[in-house]
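Thread: Modeling a multi-component assembly for a lab meeting

Hi all, long-time lurker, first post. My supervisor asked me to bring a structural picture of a complex we are working on to next week's group meeting, and I have zero experience with this. I have the sequence lines for every component (637 residues in total). Could someone generate the structure of the whole assembly? Inputs are pasted exactly as I received them:
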Amino acid sequence: MSTVTNTTTISSIGAPNRRNTELVLLLFAVLVPVLAYANVGLAKDGSVPGGLLGYGLGLGLLAGVAHLMVRRFAPYADPLMLPIATLLNGLGLVFIYRLDLEPAVTTRGLGGPKAPGQLLWSALAVAVFIGILVLLKDHRILQRYTYISGAVALVLLIAPVFFPAINGSKLWIVIPGLGSIQPGEFAKIILAVFFAGYLMVKRDALALASRRFLGLYWPRGRDLGPILAIWALSMMILVLEDDLGSTLLYFGLFVVMLYVATERTSWVVFGLLLASGGATAVGMTSGHVKVRIQNWLDPFAGIAQHGATEAAQVLWSFGSGGVLGSGLGQGFSRLIGGIGVKSDYILATVGEELGLAGLMAVLLLYGLLIERGVRTALAARDPFGKLLAIGLSSAMALQVFVVAGGVTGLIPLTGMTMPFLAQGGSSVVANWALVAILLRISDTARRPAPAPASSPDAEPTQVVRL
Amino acid sequence: MSELTLTVMRLGFLAVLWLFVIVAVQVIRSDLFGTKVTQRGTRRAAAAAEQRPPQQRQQQPQAQQGRNNRQRRGAPTKLVVSEGSLTGTTVALQGQTITLGRAHDSTIVLDDDYASSRHARIYPDRDGQWIVEDLGSTNGTYLDRTRLTTPTPVPLGAPIRIGKTVIELRK
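Re: Modeling a multi-component assembly
Sure thing. I ran the full set together rather than chain by chain. Output:
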């Protein structure tokens, strides 16, 4: 035997309660947007904007209340999710305020300044966040509502068909006098609940009953039912609502969760085949989607005849930002024009004014948020919690991919909002709700297990901890 | 606003944004939980360290005694694997139950063909005496030469044999 053997010490560490770390990060996360806000004012008018104190206190208050509620109701939850969500939301508010200062994109026709409304929506979103933390004592309660969630998600997905299209896509439910809500944002959470509950029950049938063919395990015909149904539903949304992004999000979510539940690569292959086949077929026929695909393949076509498309303007704004950016308040993203500057294309303003360096930092923040979600899924002890956490984090990951991929020209542009960053009430509320559910799962996962009874008499009936 | 101020602000903001990302990554790094494995260098270095009586080694049991009044003088403070593929592994005894077996959630995961998935466990009784108990393993747990049938107190330094692995409690 060799004399060089590594000596190791093994000791088990429980996940500590990290609320103080969260508080410090949260202070930092409020400070960064306040700095950005001052920066915008100084660059635009040469003075610190008057609303700085109010904005800083407002954001600080929201973050503080959320933190106290997490301390009270989810003491072992992940320390990073709340600060990252706060930072992204705060940065989003600053960018919307910054665009409000451009008269060209803040005309009466486009709805005037959007930042005050967004701050109100953020407050409502934090209230929903707190409500979920207080009322949802255990995420496993959601498991009872598996099929109800499925039905509700279906209604939410179909409902916008009966309302008029806005900007070429039927994604909104318009309530006269109150504004419009985008049910698709909420549908992604409810769908994740449905998929998690459904797959938890059916995973064995889907994973084990399969034939081996061409080196892959293929599912039986009768097990193909659900994936074909979801595929048909996604394609129907694509046809009826003219929106490629949501289709990609919902179908992608299902395939990811199916893969995680069954560990079968064949589902991914099968899902990709179905998705690309369907998308190609719809892309050939639907006019709206066809235009988007043409703009993606050649964003600079036809500039001489009818001016630059939004897709081209977005690419130019990334280019004009360069590596270090033009500085907050000093970009020209108003040139993108139209309604999408503050919502769908907000990443272009981030890319222009903070440059590649800033854009990468923002994307990394999303990456960290998603990573914490996946970590929660790994740590969760119950299969439903695992699947739900992976579903919610992959829904966010897919959404970030669809938006960031769209504006950078990797995939065709679709009308979706960047979580937390973009202007849009439904989006910000839905994403705070998503983070609240993830925090609830991570609180359950990281809570130290109760100490087993030390009495030797209890040994024959030992508690099996999962 | 002068050009210089704006440039400084622009770069300063990027620096602050990245600082947040770096701090967040540091938090993740310090947030790892599960099982901590500390590498103690080579066996030779460990043997050399054992020959000198360092101060730290003395302080550790004392600190533990302060925390746990039940701990008697001369009680074992660590469990050492002395034979088998895990030779050199130590586990600090801090009043927790130590499970041995091939199951992945065991405290010591045995890579031993003769071990069962939940083979045995070692735990302190109310007086702080460490007890070894066989959990119905196939090939049995031996204390010295005798096969265990009931939970048995473990004397300091007595070899507990599981398949090819030998474990003992040390001070």
